[in-house]
Design goal:
This protein is an alpha+beta fold. It contains eight helices and 18 strands.
C-alpha cells in the first residue's frame, strides 16, 4: 500500500498509477524528473522515513517554501508496485539479501560491482531512461551510515535535475550571435536561449521569454550598470536601484516585499558580488494580483569602472518553480564583463 496517505504527492501518484494500470508497455518510463519513489520494507520505512524526507525534500524559497523534490514511499511487491517501479527516479534501500535489491541488480542494464555497503547507481532496471539508486546496508541492516548516503543522494539528484533543466532550457538553441553583439557593443556578455526576445533603452537591456502565454509563464532578466562604479551596495540601495529600473522599463510596475528579502555573497565572472532574493508583486491599483520570486545581483567590473545590476524574475502561477529558477540562474551565471 502507498504511505503516508496524508501527503499530497502520494495522492497525485495514486491517481496517476490508477490511470496507468491498464498500460502494459514494459519499456515506458513514468514520473517527473523531480519525483522519487522510495522502496524498502514497511518496518524499516517507519524508522527511516523522516530521515529520507528530510534529506531529499529540501525546500527552496519562491513565493513560499517549495519542495525541490517529492518522495513517495512504495512497499515492494505491494499494490501499485508494477507501475511505480517504472518511475524515472527510484531509491531502493536494503541489504543485498532483500529480494527487491536482488531483482534490481539482476535486471540492471549495466554491470555494477557491488563490493559492500554504500550507494550505487544502475539504469534500465524496470524501464528505459530510468535511474535506480541502491543504498546497500550492511548485512545486519544497521543504519549508522544512512544519513551521509542520503545527503549524497540529495546532492546527486540536485545536480542531475539542474542539468536536466539547462538541457530543456537550451533545447531551442543558444543565441550566440546576441552574446557576441553584447560583448562587442555593450561591454558585457550573457547567453540566452533563442526563444528569448530582447530590447534595450538607456543602457538597460531586457531579455524576456513569455511563451507560450504571458498570463501563464514569464521569465525575464535585465542588465544595467552605473559608472563610475558604486562599489558594494547595501540591500536598501540594491532594492532602490532595482525599483527604479522596474518602474521605468518593465511592462508592469512591481513592488518588492522588503521584509522577506535576503542577501548573501555570490560570485559572477570570478568576481565577488551580492545576490538579493525576494518576492515581487503587482501594485494594488493595477486591479489584478500577480507576483513571484526575484533574484537581483550586483557585481563591479573595475576595469570598466562599472557596477552592474542583473535582475531576474519569474511569473509562474500554479506551477512548480524550481526548474525555472535554475534557468534564470543559468542565464545570470553566464554574465561576464568584456573589454
Amino acid at each position: 500500500m502507498l504511505v503516508p496517505k496524508s501527503r499530497p504527492a502520494s495522492l497525485i501518484l495514486f491517481l496517476l498509477v490508477t490511470t496507468l494500470a491498464g498500460c502494459d508497455e514494459p519499456g515506458l518510463t513514468y514520473g517527473d524528473a523531480n519525483s522519487v519513489i522510495a522502496v524498502t520494507d514497511p518496518e524499516r520505512w517507519a524508522e527511516i522515513s523522516d530521515s529520507v524526507y528530510g534529506a531529499i525534500e529540501r525546500t527552496i524559497q519562491t513565493v513560499r517554501d517549495e519542495k525541490a523534490f517529492t518522495v513517495t514511499y512504495q512497499e515492494p511487491y505491494a499494490q501499485y508496485w508494477e507501475n511505480l517501479r517504472r518511475f524515472r527516479q527510484m531509491l531502493l534501500i536494503g541489504t543485498l539479501s532483500d529480494p527487491w535489491m536482488e531483482e534490481a541488480l539482476d535486471k540492471a542494464s549495466d554491470d555494477v560491482d557491488v563490493d559492500g555497503p554504500g550507494l550505487y547507481d544502475i539504469g534500465g532496471v524496470w524501464s528505459r531512461e530510468q535511474t535506480v539508486r541502491l543504498i546497500v546496508l550492511p548485512d545486519d541492516g544497521s543504519l549508522g551510515g544512512l544519513p551521509s548516503l542520503l545527503d549524497e543522494v540529495s546532492e546527486t539528484l540536485d545536480q542531475q535535475f539542474r542539468q536536466y533543466a539547462r538541457s530543456r532550457m537550451y533545447f531551442s538553441g543558444v543565441d550566440q550571435a546576441l552574446a557576441d553583439t553584447l560583448a562587442a557593443e555593450a561591454g558585457f556578455r550573457v547567453v540566452v536561449p533563442d526563444v528569448y526576445r530582447w530590447m534595450t533603452e538607456d543602457s538597460v537591456f531586457v531579455f524576456r521569454n513569455d511563451q507560450p502565454d504571458p498570463s501563464e509563464l514569464i521569465r525575464q532578466v535585465a542588465v544595467t550598470w552605473r559608472s563610475p562604479a558604486s562599489g558594494e551596495l547595501d540591500p536598501e540601495e540594491i532594492l532602490q536601484w532595482r525599483q527604479s529600473i522596474a518602474n521605468t522599463y518593465y511592462t508592469q510596475e512591481q513592488e518588492v516585499d522588503e521584509d522577506a528579502a535576503t542577501v548573501q555573497p555570490h560570485t559572477l565572472d570570478g568576481r565577488q558580488g551580492l545576490r538579493l532574493q525576494a518576492q515581487w508583486r503587482n501594485p494594488p491599483d493595477l486591479g489584478w494580483p500577480a507576483g513571484g520570486p526575484l533574484m537581483t545581483y550586483t557585481v563591479t567590473c573595475d576595469e570598466q569602472d562599472r557596477t552592474y545590476l542583473i535582475d531576474a524574475w519569474l511569473y509562474a502561477p500554479g506551477r512548480e518553480k524550481y526548474e525555472y529558477i535554475i534557468q534564470l540562474e543559468t542565464i545570470v551565471d553566464s554574465f561576464s564583463c568584456t573589454e
